[in-house]
Structure to design on (676 residues):
């Protein structure tokens, strides 16, 4: 397929078109990220038969239902441990975790940092719309201070997580942040993550015009694109401690971390070979559990 | 199919129930476990962690039980037979994922080595107080299968059975041990691999075009595909249609949830296993399971020595519950005596099945130890009057 062919939407073959229309609101950024994801798949020529996508719960959690891949819509916060089991049982799979900020960083926050620490070979795409959108716009651990949400009607006062800093500290080998304005850069970052072995984390700042922008008088989806365009600053290699987000403030984007360290399964294999020698039988070299 | 000899430690062993459970899992073909340490169950995964790299499999210690109980399901969809092991507090944390396994029809085994509760309770001491939680702990309507071993030998034999049932029905199976059975050391005979029957995954043979992930052919158990085989299927915990696509209508809910129930309910007679002795002539039937069944055996023997006509019904499958068997007996006997290490759980099921046709008497014990045979004996004597 020619990605430049204008008569066919090049992302269509990656989607379950029989499930359209999708549930996302007008102006929502999640669909835009899926478009970049499909373009990254085209660009990086990933074998779609051995690519699995795992989501948790929430608006971004619905991505699993729209991509034409082996796709798993799991429980709230547990996409990463599910993906871990999938990858362990079949190391040939390329496993993508595609979920939201509430799912990954709040209820699933413990799994997020531990999977990064272990350096499980997962590509994590975190669509960060700064709130819980599916349930009606409640505060998330990513909501910037002073923003109004349905559960902080007088403004939030909790400090927010700076996700790139958290993932950098936890040991991810690749950490980048883009917004839904940066569709090409985002697709490139996804391609780079596919080429990397280990725990990759891409944060995508994305609008929720229905519940975040509206409540905070930030305009509609288009106004948010203008905001992303005007206030984003590309700083590759920026110290992650300095990329925290503020309400209406600058958004530092770029590739912050790109390093190499052995992934979980390589370390496991090396340890067993050292300790067990020939007694070690690599999984899953034994017979299939099927007839 | 026969067991993979790699996993079968054929021979006569002197091991405890936790270790025997691990050997049963390996013999059944389990090549993946995700765990989180918790007394009195940890020995199962400690042994698995030591054994599995030499048989071609993986153990991963997760950050909590929430993770362990879903990591194992990822592994199942990746093609492995998988399980997790826990005790009370961890079992409570796993409930959501038991529901996910039931809804997505992920064949897997949850081992619960029961200890005293509620909450942290008695970490090192026995109870049988998770029996209702095993059946009803996750939200919504669903069915599971639960087995109750009463010896290390059964911890081996019935763990294989648990995996086989999980595969046959694509259902999470609860393996309900207790602290005493888990830590009791006895002779365990592990037969040669060719004598161990294991149920293979119900994997689809359909073409990618023809495959419907949740389509059924009369037996109500859909065929499964694994990730990475080209099927590009979708799995969700939402109410879904035969394609696996979300379909949140009352009609689909009715169809799906009833099938999930009926695939077990209609096979209940075949699934239910129990041990029976002298039920034909019995006036009093002692219904027990797990470690309590061994104390009950002593009480039954003592009562028979006194000339009482006592029958034994030992539940090996707790769920589905053998209600039909109890109902048949109810019209023939005076009373059912139900000792268990809780303040009244399975006794309620007995009572329900008896439907007022005979007396049902609990011999309850809050846990932390086992009954004395005399407590059960006295109740038998009382009930036979």
């Amino acid at each position: 397929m020619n990605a430049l062919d204008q008569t066919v939407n090049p992302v269509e073959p990656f989607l379950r078109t029989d499930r359209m229309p999708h549930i996302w609101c007008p102006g929502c950024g999640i669909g835009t990220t899926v478009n970049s994801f499909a373009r990254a798949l085209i660009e990086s020529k990933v074998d779609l038969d051995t690519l699995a996508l795992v989501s948790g719960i929430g608006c971004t959690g619905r991505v699993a239902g729209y991509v034409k891949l082996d796709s798993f819509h799991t429980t709230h916060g547990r996409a990463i441990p599910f993906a871990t089991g999938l990858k362990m049982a079949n190391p040939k799979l390329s496993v993508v975790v595609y979920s939201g900020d509430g799912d990954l960083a709040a209820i699933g926050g413990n799994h997020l940092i531990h999977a990064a620490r272990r350096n499980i070979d997962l590509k994590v795409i975190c669509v960060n719309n700064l709130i819980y959108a599916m349930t009606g716009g409640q505060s998330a651990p990513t909501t910037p201070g002073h923003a109004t949400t349905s559960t902080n009607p007088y403004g939030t006062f909790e400090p927010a997580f700076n996700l790139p800093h958290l993932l950098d500290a936890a040991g991810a080998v690749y950490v980048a942040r883009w917004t839904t304005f940066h569709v090409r850069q985002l697709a490139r970052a996804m391609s780079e993550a596919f080429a990397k072995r280990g725990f990759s984390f891409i944060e995508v700042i994305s609008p929720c015009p229905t519940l975040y922008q509206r409540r905070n008088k930030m305009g509609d989806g288009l106004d948010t694109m203008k905001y992303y365009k005007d206030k984003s600053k590309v700083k590759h290699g920026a110290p992650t401690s300095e990329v925290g987000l503020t309400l209406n403030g600058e958004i530092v984007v770029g590739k912050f971390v790109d390093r190499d360290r052995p992934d979980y399964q390589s370390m496991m294999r090396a340890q067993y070979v050292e300790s067990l020698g020939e007694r070690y039988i690599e999984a899953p070299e034994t017979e299939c559990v099927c007839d | 199919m026969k067991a993979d000899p790699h996993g079968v430690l054929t021979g006569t062993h002197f091991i405890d129930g936790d270790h025997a459970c691990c050997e049963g899992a390996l013999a059944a073909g389990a090549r993946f476990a995700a765990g989180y340490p918790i007394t009195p169950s940890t020995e199962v995964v400690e042994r698995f962690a030591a054994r599995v790299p030499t048989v071609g499999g993986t153990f991963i210690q997760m950050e909590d039980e929430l993770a362990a109980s879903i990591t194992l399901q990822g592994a199942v969809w990746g093609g492995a037979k998988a399980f997790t092991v826990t005790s009370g507090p961890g079992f409570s944390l796993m409930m959501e994922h038991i529901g996910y396994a039931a809804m997505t029809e992920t064949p897997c085994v949850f081992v619960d080595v029961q200890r005293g509760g509620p909450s942290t309770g008695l970490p090192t001491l026995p109870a049988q107080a998770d029996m209702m939680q095993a059946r009803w702990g996750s939200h919504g309507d669903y069915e599971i299968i639960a087995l109750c071993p009463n010896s290390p030998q059964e911890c081996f034999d019935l763990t294989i059975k648990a995996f086989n049932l999980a595969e046959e029905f694509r259902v999470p199976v609860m393996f309900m041990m207790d602290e005493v059975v888990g830590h009791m050391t006895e002779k365990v005979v592990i037969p040669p691999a060719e004598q161990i029957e294991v149920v293979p995954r119900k994997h689809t043979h359909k073409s990618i075009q023809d495959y419907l992930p949740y389509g059924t052919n009369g037996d109500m158990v859909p065929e499964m595909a694994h990730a990475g085989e080209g099927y590009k299927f979708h799995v969700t915990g939402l109410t879904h249609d035969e394609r696996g696509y979300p379909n949140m209508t009352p009609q689909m809910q009715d169809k799906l949830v009833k099938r999930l129930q009926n695939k077990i309910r209609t096979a209940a007679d075949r699934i239910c296993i129990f041990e029976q002795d002298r039920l034909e002539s019995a006036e009093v039937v002692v219904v027990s399971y797990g470690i309590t069944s061994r104390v009950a055996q002593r009480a039954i023997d003592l009562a028979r020595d006194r000339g009482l006509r006592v029958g034994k019904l030992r539940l090996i499958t707790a769920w589905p519950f053998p209600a039909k068997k109890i109902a048949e007996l109810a019209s023939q006997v005076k009373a059912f005596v139900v000792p268990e290490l809780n303040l009244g759980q399975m006794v309620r099921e007995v009572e329900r099945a008896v439907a007022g046709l005979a007396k049902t008497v609990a011999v309850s014990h809050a846990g932390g130890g086992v009954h004395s045979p005399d407590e059960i004996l006295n109740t038998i004597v009382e009930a036979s009057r």
Observations:
- Residues 12-261 of chain A form a domain with the Rossmann fold fold (CATH 3.40.50.970).
- Chain A is about 35% helix and 15% strand.
- The two ends of chain A are 37 Å apart (CA to CA).
